[in-house]
Prior knowledge:
It is a single chain. Helix content is 41%, strand content 15%. It is α/β, with parallel strands linked by helices. The strands form two sheets. Strands 1-7-6-5-4-2-3 form a seven-stranded mixed β-sheet, with helices on both faces. Strands 8-9-11-10 form a four-stranded antiparallel β-sheet. α9 (186-193) links the parallel β5 (178-183) and β6 (208-211). α9 packs across α12 and α12 (264-283) runs parallel beside α14. The chain starts with a helix and ends with a helix.
Amino acid sequence: MSLDSKQSPQPLFNQFASDNYAGICPEAWQAMEEANQGFVSSYGDDRWTERACESIRNLFETDCQVFFVFNGTAANSLALASLCRSYHSVVCHDMAHIETDECGAPEFFSNGTKIMHTDGANGKLDLDAVELAITRRSDIHYPKPRVLSMAQSTELGTVYTPDELRAACDLAHSHGLRVHMDGARFANAVATLGVTPAETSWKVGVDVLCLGGAKNGMAIGEAVVFFDRGLAEEFEYRCKQAGQLASKMRFISAPWIGMLESGAWLRNAENANRQARLLASELARIPGVRLMYPCQANAVFTEMSEKATTALRAAGWHFYSFIGTGGARFMCSWLTTEQDVASLVAAVRLACAEA
């Protein structure tokens, strides 16, 4: 008997557990293929990486400093480490990825910087709570607040408006803090807001952005974008020390060219958001299903009975009961179609009816 015949049959539908489940979009794949020609200098000293950096500068309409790393954990952790010393602290939301999902990497790479989390409705920071966290103590026995970190879009699928971001950045800067943005799904936020990337980043006060690629159609790779170039001093050494300096850098950087120059970066996010809105509206009509948070990007959080979620999993559907919130999280991607949404909705309707 062959190995394949021993395996359980795979469900004949696409999954909603994560936007990481989707493969590489054609534009990113083509760019990698074009870069796979002949002999090219290593470690980022190549025309593909130079062109990708310039594409990102054009996207943000500013002369930013750009570095490419393998994944979001490295991007966030190394960016925060560049902004902090070991006796500093980073203020973030309770549900921030740097707090809940990065295995202490920000603390590790910064030699001990403390993560201080605060609450806030729908995954967004409450600025009164932020100010309290910054000002509650100033003595030498307490880690000194140095960075305010925000996610755009948030871990709960909500999106900060430019005015909300500006208020948060102004507060942080008034207390001498730098502002870090976790932009794993930054493209989804831009698509929702209908603004330029500049208008929801450096123009409102963000100092460094970790710009996501993998969740938006790329194979691997995130870009660390320093809008304040002075903060990027010796960042390349951090990348090397952390094992994030790719020898064949062109295969991380070239997909950014394909994504940005073709417009796929925004189109992919628009499709993911559109399918998520459709999914949210259809699920909200099913008795026994409650939407937990506003659907403002490509995530849909629902609450349903344990029997219903068990039945869905038994039918082959993959999804997370999200950390700290319960419920079921469904993520849409660049590859999600209306038929995919219809299949999931039908399955949820059947599971709730049986439950």
